[in-house]
Each structure stands twice: as structure tokens, then as C-alpha cells.
Design brief:
Elements (H helix, E strand, L loop, with lengths): L1 E8 L2 E8 L2 E7 L9 H14 L17 H10 L8 E2 H7 L6 H9 L12 E2 L11 H14 L7
Parallel strand pairs: 4-5
Antiparallel strand pairs: 1-2, 2-3
Length: about 160
């Protein structure tokens, strides 16, 4: 059964969507949802810890309900980018075995269904910050947050 729960964070209202206890979507939304769901509550607790500088990654169950195999490869690769670090779209393309597909990587990154879990904000253009589905200002805010707490997680 599909459930949604929303909470206000420093970057806006984040809604976690679950299907049968598995997180399938994390996104900034205008609509507020209040479904009771332990998986969503756990994910939101971990997101609070992330924003409080107490967590650098997440350990709840996730699944993709859409996307191509290429997009899945890109989204999975995003999870390997270390907290507080950035990589270029070209580096992602090379890492997923399609070195000339950096524009397709940009499209896949823009369609990332799991905000912060698949840290798409850590992918930047070779000549600057690049785009972000929720705006450059939010991308900068997330990168600054991680820069602030990065030292905490270096020994992990």
C-alpha cells in the first residue's frame, strides 16, 4: 500500500513515499501528507539526523518504481559519492560505463527519485555548480551543509 508522510526541513517540505514499507520516493513537495507509516517515519528521522549533522548516509530500504537501467546505474552510483565531496557529470558517465553520455547523466540525475539518499546535489558541472531539480540555491545549501559537517565523518 502506498503511503506518504511530509515534514518541514531547512530546505522545504520533504515528502517520503513508501510502498509496503519500502521507500520509493523522497522529494520536495507543496502538498503535506500525514499517513501513518513506520518506514516513512524512520526515513524522516534519518533525514532530520542528516540535517543536524549527525548522519552522512541512510540505512532504510529503498526501491525504484520507475527509470531505465541506465538511470538506475546512475542513481546507484550517486550513493558512492562520499559525503562532502563532488564529482562531475563526465566522471559519473565514465563510472557507469558510458563516457560520452554526460548529458544523459544530467537527465538521470535530474530525475533522481530519492533526494539525499542518492545525493544528486554532489554532481557538478566541470565548469561550475551545474543544475539541480530544486534550484541552484538549494544545491549550494546542501553542499555547504556537508562542508560544515564533513570533518565529523572522515574517520567512518
Amino acid at each position: 500500500m502506498l503511503r506518504r508522510r511530509t515534514e518541514l526541513f531547512p530546505i522545504g517540505k520533504i515528502t517520503v513515499t513508501t510502498i509496503d514499507g519500502v521507500v520509493t520516493d523522497i522529494a520536495i513537495t507543496e502538498t503535506v501528507y500525514h499517513d501513518d507509516d513506520l518506514a516513512a517515519e524512520n526515513a524522516l528521522r534519518q533525514l532530520r539526523d542528516y540535517f543536524d549533522g549527525q548522519r552522512s548516509d541512510f540505512d532504510f530500504l529503498t526501491a525504484y518504481v520507475s527509470g531505465t537501467p541506465f538511470q538506475h546505474a546512475v542513481w546507484d552510483f550517486l550513493r558512492t559519492i562520499p559525503y562532502g565531496e563532488t564529482v562531475s557529470y563526465r566522471e559519473v558517465a565514465e563510472s557507469v560505463g558510458h563516457p560520452n553520455a554526460y548529458r544523459a547523466v544530467g537527465t538521470a540525475v535530474g530525475r533522481n527519485p530519492l533526494l539525499l539518499v542518492n545525493p544528486c546535489h554532489r554532481v557538478v558541472a566541470s565548469d561550475g555548480i551545474g543544475g539541480f531539480a530544486y534550484g541552484i540555491s538549494m544545491k549550494q545549501q546542501l553542499l555547504l551543509l556537508e562542508k560544515k559537517y564533513k570533518e565529523r565523518f572522515l574517520c567512518e
